[in-house]
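Predict the 3D structure for this chain.
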Amino acid sequence: MGKKIEIVGLGAGDLEQMPFGIYKKLLHASHLYLRTKEHPVVAQLEAEGMSYTSFDHVYEKHDQFEQVYEEISQILLESAQNETIIYAVPGHPLVAERTVQLLLERSQENGVEVEIGGGQSFLDAIFTALKIDPVEGFQLLDGTLLDSAQLQLSQHIFISQVYDRFVASEVKLTLMERLPDEYEVTVVTAAGSNQEKLQTVPLYELDRIIDLNNLTSVYVPPVKDNSLMLREFSKLKDIIAELRGPNGCPWDKEQTHESLKKYLIEETFEVIDAINNDDIDHLIEELGDVLLQVMLHAQIGEDDGYFSIADVIEAVSDKMIRRHPHVFGDKEVNDSEEVLKNWQQIKAEEKGEKSLSILDGITKGQPNLLRAYDLQRKAAKVGFDWKELKPAIAKVKEELAEFENEISHADQQGALKEFGDLLFSFVNVARFLDIHPEEALHETNEKFIRRFQYVEQKVNESGKGFEQFTLDELDRFWEEAKEKGL
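Done. Predicted structure below.
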């Protein structure tokens, strides 16, 4: 007959726990394959006459588990072309069995019927061994594919497939990204059998346990210590929700999108200041303050019923995937300039219509020095720009003369306008020289602070006040500061 694979589970414990129907199938199967013979019931079934072919030798051929599973599934699909075969796996076939999933995915294209039999899941045995109620919430993760981003630390976590010390080491390092080295975990081996063994160890000792095998799982208990949860995004969200909740902070509850605008601007500049000072600790703190503003705005949106932080995350994730087809798609780029060009093109397509102006999209909310820089850059992209530096410098001189003329006529309004023109023309020169005006002004501000503080120091050392010094005397202190490289 052929073209059929019947998959059954060996269960999690001894022969006594195995369903009678599966027991009979295993003993009378003409062609039985085992993913591994390293299971408590196999020796017992061998003693009763069970014959089989195991795939343990395949594990020795490959460095990656995925390669092992691929080869096993391929052998089974080929074997089933001419006869019905039985494939037995530890536990239940649909719990943490990658080979079974591969067979289900590929059975139709290979013309093979796959039938799933029973078997006790190792989870039942682990819950019993650890005395855990799964209704409290749990995760089952694969130790060979573990990613720290998967971990829900407030839940019970079970990590299967911890076959050996190498996998245990990888699991340990991944867990230590989120948990302290001393956090206690329990290594569960052969749960539900007469070989059952539980070992509770600090996380840093996880890969020092010798008797790890294919029946080993690692249990990570839920984190109860609030201080450990402070690194979790979910904890931050809960804190913000509580601050704006009925029993929260009066100030936080009063805030609106409008009232928070100034704080977002202030915190953004604090971040820039930390970057300019190459102060990593300060940068961490200030990025946290910016994130706080984002979270407050999101919580206000949720409280008002318009949006939540999940909507914000979804929007930016979707945008990043759409606008990076060279990373998440099949588009090819040669350099960052091409990336930016594609970005602008995709952005225009997303809007669904052409902008009314080339200058659309430059926000009025940013400082005007930065806005002038962005306006000029956008205009330059379509050729509205000088081709060389000399005319740009001549424009500065022209605007300076016009500014001086307004001053000589005591025209305050005219002087204001011409001063703006002068600044705008200086920004243009900076752009030609690949100097960012905001960075340049920042450097000058910092230099002024250093030199003025030196002047203050000299004045304080004299025991006199500023008003007792002439401008020339103060200027001499300033020149001293320059000579000292301040």
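The first strand starts at residue 4 and ends at 9.
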